Inverse folding.
């Protein structure tokens, strides 16, 4: 049985689109059952509908600071679509600890930095200001703290001396679109084991690569 996934968005939804593309391929262990936006003007809504995925808006603004009330409506939609797993794709709304606890181990997020470095806003600018030579993206399980939680998968790019937040962000976004579907595949296949705050992969990582930046020769 394929795991039923809801993708939560607030904007353009390029990660959503990558997950939708992956999920229609043969043997992918999850199907995208619904896309939910907390903003009616999210560009991703149209993209989802164009792919034949039900896309609904639950405006968060009218709920103001009452996060629990918003989450009650959200939870009803998730129940209605019999959702097993939630993927956040640029979903710009914080959750209560109660909601996060309810979905612990079943709610994924992607953030464009090598967490735990540079959580929050402007991660690309933060990386350039820090002068790191390798940057990247992280898929993780969601916990109450923003952009934190057990790490499922990371992908890296070399930072160039002439990078701007825009050029770095464009290269990292390509990585995001690769690792998010792969992380979802692992979770949906039941291959991830949580040991405390650490994700372990059944069968091992099978990888022994290195990435050195800058290349000195
Ligand atoms: C992505 O880069 C995602 O990693 C980031 O928002 C962007 C959404 O783009 N998420 C965060 O910064 C979470 N803190 P998208 O709508 O095209 O997927």
């Amino acid at each position: 049985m394929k795991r039923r996934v809801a993708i939560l968005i607030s904007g353009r939804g390029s990660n959503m689109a990558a997950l939708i593309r992956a999920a229609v391929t043969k043997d992918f262990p999850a199907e995208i059952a619904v896309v939910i936006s907390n903003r009616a003007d999210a560009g991703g809504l149209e993209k989802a509908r164009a792919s034949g995925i039900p896309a609904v808006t639950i405006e968060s603004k009218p709920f103001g600071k009452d996060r629990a009330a918003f989450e009650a409506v959200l939870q009803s939609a998730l129940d209605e679509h019999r959702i097993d797993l939630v993927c956040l794709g640029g979903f710009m709304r914080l959750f209560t600890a109660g909601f996060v606890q309810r979905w612990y181990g079943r709610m994924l997020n992607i953030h464009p930095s090598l967490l735990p470095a540079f959580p929050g806003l402007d991660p690309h600018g933060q990386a350039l200001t820090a002068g790191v030579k390798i940057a990247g993206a992280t898929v993780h399980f969601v916990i109450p703290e923003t952009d934190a939680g057990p790490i499922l998968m990371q992908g890296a790019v070399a930072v160039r001396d002439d990078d701007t937040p825009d050029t770095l962000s464009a290269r990292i976004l390509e990585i995001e679109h690769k690792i998010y579907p792969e992380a979802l595949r692992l979770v949906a296949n039941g291959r991830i084991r949580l040991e405390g705050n650490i994700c372990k992969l059944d069968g091992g990582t099978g990888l022994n690569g290195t990435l050195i930046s800058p290349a000195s020769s």
Observations:
- The chain has two domains: 1-103, 109-211.
- The pocket of glycinamide ribonucleotide is lined by residues 9, 11-15, 89-90, 110-112, 147, 173, 176 (CB under 6 Å).
- DSSP finds six helices and nine strands in the chain.
